[in-house]
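Many introductory courses stop at the sequence. We go one step further.
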Amino acid sequence: MKHMNSEVKEERTSNKKRIDLFLVPIVLIAAFLNLFKIWTDEYANAYYTAAVKSMLQSFHNFFYASFDPGGYVTIDKPPVVFWIQTISAKIFGFHGWSVILPQALAGIGSVLLLYVLVKRTFGVWAGRFAALAMALTPIVPAVSRTNNIDSMLVFTLLVATWMLFRAVRTAKFGWVLAAFAMIGVAFNMKMLQAYMVLPAFYVFYVVATKITWKKKIAFLTTATALMLAVSVSWAVVVDSTSADKRPYMGSSQTNSVLELAFGYNGINRLTGNTSVTGSSHKQPAQTQQQTASSETKQTSNSNADSSQSSNQSKSSSSKKMQAPGGGNQNGMFNTGNPGPFRLFQKGLSDQISWLLPFVIFSIVGLFAGVKFKGPYTTKQKESLFWLAWLLPVAVFFSIAGFFHQYYLIMLAPPIAAFAGAGAVALWSMYKQRNGWKSWLLPGGILTTAALQVYIMSPYVSSIGVAPIAGVGALGVILALVLAIRKERKNSVTNYLGVAAMVVLLAMPAYWAMTPIIYGGNSMLPAAGPDSSSGMGGPPSTATNSKQSGFNGMQPPGSSSSSSSSNNQMQPPTGSSNGGQMQMPGGSSNNGQMQPPSGSSNSGQMPGGSSNNSQMPNSSSSKSSSSKRKSGGMNAEVNQKLLNYLTKNNTGEKYLFATTDSTSAAPYIIKTGKPVMAMGGFSGSDPILTVSKLKAMIKKGEVKYFYLSGMGKGGQSDVITWIKENSKEIPSSKWQSTSSSSQQGPSGNGTLYEITLK
């Protein structure tokens, strides 16, 4: 202990004089994993990218985070991250990489912040290990390489953590207020998800501060009140603004930010009550594979753009949907089935759980001998903070009804912190031959290696047997040798300890690189050999197409002698529905992709004109270029349609209207012109009524409507009225004759024109 304390003091002194040279390569690794090739993602998540395009056009759109330039409907999240993305696009120009850049930098910043937070108390080597573990946690770079919110959210919460630690060290109440206010800012990034860290903040402040209970309660009450005020500040302004003077609040059912925060983006995530119709009701367990929140609709569409089908003969031999890990019962969107061991199931374990056994052994070592009544050392207090962050979040993800894999980035900071602090603590106990505690290090190495073998085993066809066997064998050998040499002290033992950490980080490092190797997924970010072929994955950038897909799926343009002439899309996620591809809404056709808007045209997506779910041949498609348009099936526009609409626009505000954001987003990105997503993101928002639409048409705001089906939810009356009162535009006037190279609204949909006097 004296050695560790002296190390911390020495480190603080040296830190004032020079940069930690060991930190430099760690930061470079993080920079590579987060930044390399982000310029190939031209559209990123098209739903959010379209919003940035719209927000660049006016302060009104900027403030409300409007999805479309016309200010018709907002996106389904608060605006802070998108404000930052818009500023980035303003500075660097509007590109896919410019909207991704803030999140990539936030991922690097989180690595640095964790180093600072851990190093000060646990020592410089603990800080280095923690930073490296954070950088190599696969889900961290996978999310940071997209324009999704979570990387920025975690960075903001780590800033708040730094402020809280400083508040305790300096005994200044101002830092407490700043820390909780920062959580309020994080709330305006992703709402209630930001509050997951509150147990850690409350517990740590109560335990770590040396003030009276009366002051603790008063300070925390005041800080919480400030946090709540900051949290709801934007919501109060929006909800108090007249509905006719602002966009509709997307994905809400009552046009309210607060309803969105505590319903769709709040309690419904825990209960799983979020459905594609936008209503909140309990879904039967057997239908949860068939339904999802509106957040997933565009993602499902984009799967058709991301990969071609596997050999039909292969699909017929196994009708069940296969999860990326090879399982066929892997929960909705590869998030496993609720239970105490959910984080060790396929789909989640390879994103976040590589070091969990070592973390558990570290927690045991760090809290060994601690008495409930104290007194506590600084290390024990901060360990308690990370534990109070880790446990509630882990419990949430173990029982939650609906979330996506990339939400697991919330677990990365405490896991990395315990990995770093625990590595040093367990090594110290091992070297000092501290009774039973000296066995924690070899025990942690052995069990962690065993878990990693379990995580990798379903991917043997993708990565081969060698790395799996290598990690298992080396883990066992190093753990046994360390156990045997426990009574010896020499440099060989030191090298063995370092080698063990290298072995435990080797496969997480490879997994963290998979979005670069195989191609990323801007809709549902995830790491692994199947990183580009999950629900909504963009075309892979891998050179070896056989490894880039899932179950043999090939990205558009790749050749395979085993490709079926039918090119039927095979379901990418786990399901027990006998091989039927279930899209939001629950329709299926023997595994063929179904139009998510309810079209009767079997197997066609909103942006595709081919039959039997045939995908465009990228030999004539722009999707074969180095730029990945990963924004969805309609990430490329139908130029002939665009020319027709532009030519025949007679001053209407909206270029055209469509049921949801999927068809609208690429046209907004391409032209910067307003396109109306009548039902919001999923097409289920009750925004329009027939009378309101009539008024808009009479005022000359919109006259063209692209409909790919019957619509959903509250739109059915509107869509029926459109069909009954419109003129159908012949497809020859707007459909491309080469549908393989022209995507966007075409094929299975119909273009209508309505003019009212």
